């Protein structure tokens, strides 16, 4: 069913589409990294495609097995057409950057932050690219295949704890209010 999507992308973007394949409803398109945002915008606004739901963004590290070393992989879905697509861009180790898709799908914000935090691929144009899972002083990116398993991280001093109101300790002004 989603072969229609792959064919349409090939017709529209030609040489910017490096490869396509699909098995068991899992269609994949590999696109030219500089044209990633343009392809994503087309996938979202084209009425026949209507990819309106970002699912995930991750990175695959092929260290030692292939160059370019990284694949940035976006999973997207069309709630209107029920198409699912894996959108990939190849990223070399010498320039581990990729255009951010937060301008197309704002929901990719935290996914791209996680991918940067764990793999070290910088998302150019991201509105708030900073660590999301690890603390700011953490050195390196632990899901890279060359990250040393026995690496010691710097100790950080205790930070003040800010108490957040919960159901167990609501502030007085919130008691008996909906």
User: What count of structural domains?
Assistant: 1
The level 1 CATH classification is: Alpha Beta
Q: State the distance separating the first and last CA atoms.
A: 47 Å
Mean pLDDT: 91
CATH superfamily (homologous) name: NADH:ubiquinone oxidoreductase Nqo5 subunit
Please give the number of β-strands: 7
Note down, in words, how this protein is organized.
By secondary structure, this protein is an alpha/beta fold. The chain has a single domain (3-154), classed as Beta Polymerase, domain 2 (2-Layer Sandwich), CATH 3.30.460.80. 18% of the residues lie in helices and 25% in strands. It contains three helices and seven strands. The chain has helices at residues 3-13, 36-45, 109-119, and strands spanning 17-23, 26-31, 53-61, 70-77, 84-91, 97-99, 122-124. The strands form two sheets. Strands 1-2-5-4-3 form a five-stranded mixed β-sheet. A two-stranded parallel sheet has the order 6-7. A hairpin with a 2-residue loop joins strand 1 and strand 2. The longest helix has 11 residues, at 3-13. The model has no long low-confidence stretch (mean pLDDT 91).
Q: Gist?
A:
The chain is α/β, with parallel strands linked by helices and 178 residues long. The protein is 18% helix and 25% strand. The chain has three helices and seven strands, in the order H-E-E-H-E-E-E-E-H-E.
Descriptive labels:
178 residues; alpha/beta; Beta Polymerase, domain 2; 5-stranded mixed beta sheet; 7 strands; 18% helix
List the helices and strands and how they pair.
Blueprint: H1 3-13, E1 17-23, E2 26-31, H2 36-45, E3 53-61, E4 70-77, E5 84-91, E6 97-99, H3 109-119, E7 122-124
Parallel strand pairs: 2-5, 6-7
Antiparallel strand pairs: 1-2, 3-4, 4-5
């Amino acid at each position: 069913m989603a072969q229609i999507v792959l064919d349409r992308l090939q017709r529209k973007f030609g040489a910017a589409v490096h490869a396509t394949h699909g098995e068991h409803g899992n269609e994949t398109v590999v696109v030219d990294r500089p044209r990633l945002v343009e392809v994503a915008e087309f996938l979202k606004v084209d009425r026949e495609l209507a990819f309106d739901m970002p699912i995930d963004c991750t990175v695959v590290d092929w260290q030692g097995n292939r160059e370019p070393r990284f694949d940035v992989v976006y999973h997207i879905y069309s709630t209107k057409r029920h198409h699912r697509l894996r959108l990939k861009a190849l990223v070399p180790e010498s320039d581990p950057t990729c255009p951010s898709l937060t301008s197309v799908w704002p929901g990719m914000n935290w996914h791209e932050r996680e991918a940067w935090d764990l793999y070290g691929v910088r998302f150019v144009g991201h509105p708030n690219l900073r660590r999301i899972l690890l603390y700011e002083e953490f050195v390196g990116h632990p899901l890279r295949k060359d990250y040393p398993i026995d690496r010691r991280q710097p100790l950080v001093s205790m930070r003040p704890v800010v108490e957040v109101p919960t159901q167990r300790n609501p502030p007085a002004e919130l008691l008996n209010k909906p």
